[in-house]
Write a structure and sequence with these properties.
- The complex is a heterotrimer of chains A (about 80), B (about 400) and C (about 375).
- Helices cover about 10% and strands about 35% of the residues of chain A.
- Chain A is mainly β.
- In chain B, about 30% of the residues lie in helices and about 25% in strands.
- In chain B, the strands form six sheets. In chain B, strands 1, 2, 3, 4, 5, 6 and 19 form a seven-stranded mixed sheet that branches.
- Chain C has about 375 residues and is of the alpha/beta class.
- Helix content of chain C is about 30%, strand content about 30%.
- The two termini of chain C are about 25 Å apart.
- The chains are: A mainly beta (about 80), B alpha/beta (about 400), C alpha/beta (about 375).
- At the A-B interface, helix 1 and strand 4 of A face strand 8 and helix 3 of B.
- Strand 22 of chain B pairs antiparallel with strand 16 of chain C, so a sheet runs across the interface.
């Protein structure tokens, strides 16, 4: 875990706080929280594949907005992230 | 619905990787009004992704080019072009709204993505693209002490391995179907990487045949010179060369042959005033992207003579482009990686066996939902082209999912 | 008939051709189906899959109602990927005038045994909370169905194939009639009966019939389970669907079983190209958002177009052609081909085999619109 006294950001992933370095993407924060991003149509856990906004496997809900591509969004303090929307 | 923000540019650049930055820099030097659009939170593209500021080999070059980008160039981050409203007018969306981007000249520097091939277990979390894992690590994913298997083909693999090792990852294996012998490596860079990677087991004639794990990856079975062995690991980074992003070019009517956008000596496509630079014209790496971007930027700004001065430099980089395509041709054995149950279309969870019954990409889409999901076939399209020889059908708007309010 | 290679050759493997193939084979006939592409690749792939009872005319009501009953009886056999769902239709009234139409429709359907309920604004909001405020009410038609047409067509075709029908895909027919069809490679196939089920392209194969292409656009969203529960149409839809002259759009949205929302609809004449028309698309999406403002925030994944086979009187052409006794038509279904495919096949085959039909075929006979010179 990154040091919380360095330039860090705390956001909420599925109700639990996660502390990350400033500049970290939401996809990474979700991975640090130990969660898959979504459950597939057939019920499988899925995480990021392409890391560049193409595959849509990393989508989560951010601040109530569903289907956000978390690999292209930088963490902000207090952000509410929900996986498996 | 409000399409409030309308912007007009003499030269509009789509894509903020090396080719796009170079195009914007050179066009701006000519004193014209320039805009640059990228869907990432910052410029740099995949290869120059800065993320948390970890230093890497291209850092100096990136800094140099980025510093040449004058403040007058209007940059749109986190913005994705999804349609053309009319000739000379693109529609783009960001987190909050939609923009109309009007241009007199357009430079398309849309880069490339990794090609993924399905094999049992490839949908498990922590199985990622090689570039995909690198991007995640650049964006903060802790990798120190993690055991990583790197597999597949393409110019990224060794660079990714070197990068991850530098970040503290334990590279368990590099699996290469072809083998370094055929690796062009741009000679000097290749050797440098080889040295950096000393001590890492490099297996040739080797590819992943299955990934295992319950909720996430635990181990990988690799086929190595015909024998199977199991390797425990935390991450599998696996991509099979690159596929150019040509959806926008296709939407705008640019001629595409053999998967690549056709351009003239000024990087102009078959559509007048629309230019293209970088990977969409041929997978050639950073050097090639930069010089193509420069030429496209100058030509788009009306400076043909200055663009011409760069033709020689481009000629040298093109040789490398040809070598890459030959070196990273896919082995036919890779067609047999999926089992009947292996998911091919990850968006809609369509298995290999369901696709085997289909005659074409369109038939597969309509009868199995393959390619009907959010990625719009960007992942399963290149895979099914390799597996079944299917050609994807025509591109329709929106070329990326967009909010209904943005479209109407 | 016995000297011909087949009893029946059906040209077109859309939902109508598939339903015909199924019906003919079940009555013991030797059937061949030809299509230039694959099963369900034309309007069947483009349509919404709304199995709806309509009341523009008695004839339209009879055909749609009968066919809907046939779909209901087929339900137990339909595979899961047909996504059959009896979600019902709500005709939405925006003002007092449209509410008048709700009452008229209610009386009409009730008299004919179709279960319908008039919804006041409160009941409407309860059933569909994402509709905008201030609507006047609506009519719920409970037995209307939604399904996924390409898979339904495939099911019918597979069933026909298992009963002996032959299917040749990827072949182009250049001539049909006089007891044979000719393919683009010059091959000729003889048949006792030839059925033109080529949808919007039927008139290219059979001269003298008035079937025109009417282009439509659709948009589909990502999955938003529960966002809508019924197929929703504005009552102004009828005005739009009837307007023969100009391009029109109407609010017509459908919840798919996947949770996706299918957004329609548009109607254009004289537009022969497949490209998405920006103007019409924007008008269509704005109309939909006027009724369901929350749609605006949903992700649209895909847009496509298709061609309805339209006739001047809005009724399909079912039955013998006017000039050629061996040639039968099953086309011109406009936006109701999925709904009426099963009934079309049933009454067509009834007419050919001399069986007593459940509903009269007369209103749909091609001879009703016969022009002076028929048939090329």
């Amino acid at each position: 875990m990154p040091d919380s006294n360095v330039n860090s950001v705390t956001l909420i992933v599925n109700g639990s706080p996660v502390n990350v370095l400033a500049g970290t993407t939401v996809a990474v924060a979700v991975a640090i929280a130990g969660r898959p991003c979504r459950t597939s149509v057939g019920g499988e856990p899925r995480g990021p594949l392409c890391g560049m906004g193409i595959c849509f496997e990393c989508r989560v809900s951010i601040n109530g907005r569903s289907h956000c591509r978390s690999c292209q969004i930088v963490c902000e303090p207090g952000m509410e992230v929900k996986t498996d929307e | 619905m409000s399409r409030d923000s309308e912007s007009r540019f003499d030269v509009l650049v789509i894509g903020g990787g090396p080719a796009g930055i170079a195009a914007a820099v050179r066009a701006a030097e000519c004193g014209v009004r320039v805009g640059i659009v990228d869907d990432n939170p910052a410029l740099g593209g995949q290869i120059w992704r800065t993320g948390l500021g970890n230093a890497h080999s291209d850092d100096a070059k990136r800094k140099m080019w980025s510093s040449r980008l004058p403040p007058e160039v209007m940059a749109f981050y986190g913005t994705r072009v999804f349609d053309q409203a009319a000739a000379g007018k693109l529609l783009a969306e960001d987190a909050d709204g939609v923009r109309e981007l009007c241009y007199a000249n357009l430079v398309l520097a849309t880069g490339a993505r990794e090609r993924f091939l399905p094999f049992p277990g490839w949908t498990l979390p922590n199985v990622m693209g090689a570039g995909g894992l690198q991007a995640m690590v650049k964006c903060g994913l802790p990798i120190r002490g993690k055991r990583v298997v790197i597999a597949g083909t393409g110019p990224l693999l060794l660079a990714v391995a070197a990068y991850l090792q530098k970040q503290g990852a334990e590279i368990a294996f590099i699996c290469e179907p072809a083998g370094l012998v055929r690796y062009p490596g741009k000679i000097s860079e290749g050797l440098r990487l080889k040295k950096a990677l000393a001590g890492i087991p490099l297996a040739t004639k080797c590819w992943p045949v299955a990934a295992h794990g319950a909720q996430a990856l635990e181990s990988v079975t690799i086929s190595r010179a015909g024998k199977k062995e199991n390797v425990s690991c935390d991450c599998l980074a696996c991509g099979f060369h690159l596929v150019p992003n040509t959806e926008l070019q296709a939407l705008l009517g640019c001629r595409i042959t053999g998967g690549y956008v056709q351009v003239d000596e000024f990087q102009q496509t078959s559509v007048s005033r629309i230019f293209c630079a970088g990977e969409p014209t041929g997978i050639g790496g950073v050097e090639s992207a930069l010089v193509e971007g420069e030429i496209a930027g100058l030509a788009a700004a009306g400076q043909a003579a200055r663009a011409r001065q760069l033709f020689g430099k481009r000629r040298k980089t093109r040789r490398f482009t040809t070598i890459l395509d030959q070196a990273f041709r896919l082995r036919p054995e890779l067609k047999h990686l999926p089992s009947a149950e292996t998911i091919v279309c990850r968006c809609e969870d369509v298995s290999y066996s369901r696709l085997q019954e289909q005659q074409s990409w369109r038939a597969a889409k309509l009868h199995t939902r393959c390619g009907m999901g959010l990625c719009q076939g960007r992942i399963c399209g290149p895979a099914t082209e390799f597996l079944f020889g299917w050609k994807q059908d025509s591109v329709r708007p929106p070329i990326f999912p967009a909010r209904v309010a943005s479209m109407g | 008939m016995s000297t011909a290679a087949y009893d029946v050759v059906i040209v077109g493997a859309g939902i109508v051709g598939a339903a015909c193939a199924d019906e003919f084979t079940r009555r013991g006939m030797r059937v061949l189906v030809l299509d230039r592409d694959f099963v369900g690749s034309g309007a069947t792939a483009a349509g919404m899959g709304h199995i709806v009872v309509m009341d523009d005319s008695e004839a339209q009501f009879a055909l749609t109602r009968y066919s809907q009953q046939l779909w209901k009886s087929l339900r137990p056999q339909l595979p899961d990927d047909c996504e059959y769902e009896q979600c019902g239709t709500i005709w939405v009234a925006a003002d007092e005038e449209e509410l008048e139409e709700v009452r008229r429709k209610h009386a009409y359907y009730s008299q004919r045994g179709v279960p319908v309920t008039v919804l006041d604004p409160q009941a409407l909001r309860q059933l569909e909370p994402n509709l905008r405020d201030g609507l006047s009410g609506g009519l719920l038609v409970e037995e209307d169905i939604v399904l996924y047409p390409p898979c339904a067509a495939r099911f019918l075709m597979e069933r026909a194939r298992k009963c002996g029908a032959q299917i040749r895909l990827g072949v182009t027919v250049t001539h049909l009639g006089q007891g044979f069809v000719r393919l683009s490679d010059g091959a000729e196939i003889t048949a006792g009966i030839v059925v033109n089920a080529a949808g919007a392209w039927a008139a290219e194969l059979t001269g003298g019939i008035e079937v025109k292409k009417r282009k439509g656009h659709l948009v589909i969203t990502d999955r938003y389970a529960g966002f809508l529960r019924h197929q929703l149409l504005e009552l102004g839809y009828l005005k739009s669907a009837h307007s023969v002259a100009s391009d029109s759009v109407a609010f017509n949205v459908q919840p798919r079983r996947t949770g996706q929302i299918l957004i329609g609809s548009s109607r254009q004449y004289g537009a022969e190209h497949r490209e998405v028309d920006q103007q019409i698309l924007r008008r269509m999406l704005r109309r939909a958002q006027e009724y369901v403002p929350g749609l605006g925030a949903l992700s649209a994944v895909r847009t496509w177009t298709g061609f309805r086979a339209t006739t001047p009187d809005k009724l399909p052409l079912i039955g013998p052609s006017t000039g050629d006794k061996s040639l039968f038509l099953a086309t011109g279904h406009e936006g109701l081909g999925i709904t009426t495919s099963l009934a079309t096949a049933r009454i067509l085959v009834d007419a050919i085999t001399g069986a007593k039909p459940e509903i009269l075929i007369e209103p749909y006979l091609p001879s009703r619109a016969a022009k002076e010179s028929v048939h090329a």
